[in-house]
Amino acid sequence: MKKINKVGIIGVGDYVPDKVLTNFDLEKMVDTSDEWITTRTGIKQRRIAANNQPTSVLAINAAKKALKDANVGPEQIELIIVATITPDMHFPSTACIVQSALKANKAVCFDISAACAGFVYAMTVAEQFIRNGTYKNALIIGAEKLSSITDWKDRNTCILFGDGAGACVLAPVKTGGIISSYLETNGNLVDLLYMPGGGSRFPASIKTVNERMHFIKMRGNELFKIAVRCMTDAANKALKKCGLGCADVTYIIPHQANVRILWAVAKKLSMPQEKIFLNIQKFGNMSSASTAVALSEVVRTKKLKKGDILVLDAFGAGLVWGACVIEW
Ligand code: UT7
């Protein structure tokens, strides 16, 4: 197998469902206010998928745009990875459902469960397969229908989440590409963010439904400080690995959990806030889809120049976190 030196992004796409749920809508559902949500999180609205739109539909829409942008036909794709914590079903993987819809019959397909860092994990895994010559290209997708596991009676969490999907096509490139990545995991803090019901530990039952165990449980305040520390550390370590520093970065493309987390990360990295790409105000926290959609938006709207440096930086349940440095 021929080893590949540089693997880069050759196409991007994103899709969010039409339905907008504003903070004012939420005021009618739980004891909250637009003022509280805006000042504590930065979120103004989020998108909610329709009943006939499972995660795969969001993923397929984003994937089609990424394939078109890359000018690659689905039959040419050799690997599809979907990062999601809201798969259509426990099995088969959502990636298999996406493969069928796209008619990407040659692709090997699987899902990655790495919560909000899922897209960064997927990019890192796909990059290895292309770099070592196993596959010529990969379609990676971050897609979530978090509204399906959100407790709409819990004001601590329901104001945070939204639905959406982002995708990109990775392939060998002549210049630039993914120049470093860094992943880290700490499984000792599972109980800070998790969904207890529906797995093999607590299979679905009347009890799990009555006890609202099929919804996200989160200790937000404790996560906040860890998120700041981990996202700062991941960006620093990934940059150091490729001999760069914060001053070299054009945009940080972070997971969008809370604007206050991102301003704290910017401060710790000594970076101006304008270098931190934000879409949380429009979409809330879309877990793995947040970084995926943000990357697509940056590529589509920011007139990137050759040599620009992008840092994907994410943190989530697990705990899992990581960063990828991409030279444009
Ligand atoms: O996605 C990856 C991982 N996730 C994260 O990293 C999330 C990180 N955490 C956060 O973003 C924040 O902790 C939250 C936005 C979730 C919460 O903000 P906070 O500033 O940490 O608030 P808090 O949980 O400490 O709650 C402060 C107060 C409480 O009232 P008391 O006990 O002080 O009277 C809450 O009951 O705010 C109250 N509160 C609300 N009030 C109005 C909590 N949620 C709401 C709400 N509306 N929606």
The Cα radius of gyration reads 19 Å
Average pLDDT, rounded to a whole number, is 97
CATH architecture of the largest domain: 3-Layer(aba) Sandwich
Structural class: alpha/beta
CATH superfamily of the largest domain: Thiolase/Chalcone synthase
Oligomeric state of the chains in view = single chain
Count the E strands: 13
Q: What shape does the CA trace take? A: globular
Provide tags for this entry.
328 residues; alpha/beta; Peroxisomal Thiolase, Chain A, domain 1; 5-stranded mixed β-sheet; 4-stranded mixed β-sheet; 10 helices; 33% helix; binds oxa(dethia)-CoA
Structure write-up:
The protein has two domains: 7-175, Thiolase/Chalcone synthase (Peroxisomal Thiolase, Chain A, domain 1); 179-327, 3-Layer(aba) Sandwich (Peroxisomal Thiolase, Chain A, domain 1). The protein is 33% helix and 24% strand. It has helices at residues 23-27, 34-41, 55-70, 94-102, 118-131, 206-210, 220-241, 259-268, 280-283, 288-301; strands spanning 7-15, 19-22, 45-48, 79-83, 108-112, 138-145, 163-172, 177-185, 193-194, 217-218, 251-254, 309-316, 320-327. A hairpin with a 3-residue loop joins strand 12 (309-316) and strand 13 (320-327). Helix 3 crosses helix 4. It is globular and about 55 Å long. It starts with 6 loop residues before the first strand and ends with a strand. The mean pLDDT is 97. Bound molecules: oxa(dethia)-CoA.
